[in-house]
Amino acid sequence: MDQLMTIDELAAYMRVSRFTVYRLAKDRLIPATKIGRQWRFQKEEIDQWVKEQFRRESR
Predict the structure, then answer these.
(1) Full-model pTM
(2) Quick one: how many helices (H) and strands (E) in the chain?
(3) Residue 53 vs residue 9, higher pLDDT
């Protein structure tokens, strides 16, 4: 089963600020789902997104 993370959990996982994660989600730059009024993130989707970002920068 996919693990859903909150903004705070994802910020700690990615080692960035809570505001950075919120801004990326709000601007639809990172895979996210809004449940009620709160953002949620699937760990597997985030891992894939990070890999794609590194591939784009290494070209």
Answers:
(1) 0.85
(2) 3, 3
(3) 9
The domain 4-57 is placed in CATH, from the list 1.25.10, 1.10.1660, 1.10.287, 1.10.10, at 1.10.1660
Own/partner pairs for 11-15, CB < 8 Å, 24+ apart? 13/43, 13/46, 14/46, 14/50
Residue with tokens 């959990």: 9
CA–CA separation, 3 vs 14, rounded Å? Answer: 15
Which tokens in the block code for residue 43?
A: 């760990």
pLDDT at residue 29 above 90? Answer: yes
Q: How far is CA 3 from CA 27, 40, 41, 58, 59, in A?
A: 22, 10, 8, 29, 31
3-state secondary structure of 59: coil
